[in-house]
């Protein structure tokens, strides 16, 4: 439970209360007009190669402090460090890709609309729908053994005008995500800009800033601890 590897999102009130007491609630948090990002991936082989997968996520958002209009880009980079010599059980797949290939179904949960995916490898399976009160956008990425692949998602939407808050959801993995956050206002009259905020995503995390006519500091706090 310490690393949030066994969590539930019950919809029954009594079940929710019981699981909250024992620390097993993993429901998507309410953001009340704030921004939200959760990147995950599913093993679409299926195989056992996720132990060798490394993932980095870059989030770049441009926000209008007055209207709340937002344009954003999510860039997900996957590196497959699977060694040679693994068994077919561990490294095979059901899609005729070479042994050691990780067929990753990349998932982005966000409040915003998907405009365009680039870098995906099975575009006919690209899809979006509403899940847990957020939009869920999917794209398949094929990562051969010893290779790195990148996929990007363009988003368009809005947040509440005024202070900007970003909640980042954490998927427990063998290797935690390397996160980079860049958030800028649409006009230079407002600050602060959040450029190159880099950390290891080891828990659900919040980034908070106040748009003002003068520079302010960016406060970053993590639910359960500071981002590393």
Task: Please tell me about this protein's structure.
The protein has 228 residues and is mainly β. Helices cover 6% and strands 46% of the residues. The chain is built from two helices and 13 strands; from the N terminus they run αβββαββββββββββ. A seven-stranded mixed β-sheet has the order 6-7-4-1-9-12-13, with no helix packed on it. A six-stranded mixed β-sheet has the order 5-8-3-2-10-11, with no helix packed on it. The longest helix is centred in the first third of the chain and has 9 residues, at 13-21. The two termini are 20 Å apart. 29% of the residues are buried.
| pLDDT averaged residue by residue | 86
H and E order: HEEEHEEEEEEEEEE
% residues in beta strands: over 45%
- Count the helices. How many? 2
Radius of gyration from the CA trace?
A: 19 Å
Count of β-strands: 13
Percentage of residues in helical conformation: under 10%
Regions with little confidence, pLDDT below 50 for 5+ residues:
214-221, 224-228
Amino- and carboxy-terminal Cα gap: 20 Å
The largest sheet is: 7 strands, mixed
Quaternary assembly? single chain
State the shape: globular
* Largest sheet: spatial strand order: 6-7-4-1-9-12-13
Structural class: mainly beta
């Amino acid at each position: 439970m310490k690393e949030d590897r066994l969590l539930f999102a019950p919809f029954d009130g009594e079940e929710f209360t019981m699981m909250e007491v024992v620390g097993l609630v993993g429901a998507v948090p309410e953001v009340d007009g704030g921004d939200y990002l959760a990147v995950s991936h599913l093993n679409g082989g299926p195989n056992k190669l996720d132990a060798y997968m490394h993932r980095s996520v870059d989030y770049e958002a441009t926000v209008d402090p007055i209207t709340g209009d937002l344009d954003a880009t999510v860039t997900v980079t996957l590196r497959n460090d699977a060694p040679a010599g693994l068994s077919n059980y561990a490294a095979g797949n059901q899609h005729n890709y070479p042994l050691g290939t990780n067929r990753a179904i990349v998932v982005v949960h966000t409040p915003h609309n998907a405009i365009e995916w680039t870098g995906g490898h099975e575009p006919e399976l690209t899809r979006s729908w509403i899940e847990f009160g957020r939009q869920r956008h999917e794209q398949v990425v094929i990562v051969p053994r010893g290779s790195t692949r990148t996929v990007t998602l363009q988003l368009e939407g809005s947040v509440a005008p005024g202070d900007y808050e970003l909640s980042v959801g954490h998927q427990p993995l063998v290797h935690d995500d390397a996160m980079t956050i860049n958030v800028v206002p649409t006009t230079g009259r407002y600050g602060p800009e959040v450029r190159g905020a880099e950390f290891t995503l080891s828990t659900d995390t919040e980034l908070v800033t106040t748009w003002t006519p003068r520079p302010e500091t960016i406060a970053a706090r993590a639910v359960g601890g500071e981002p590393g």
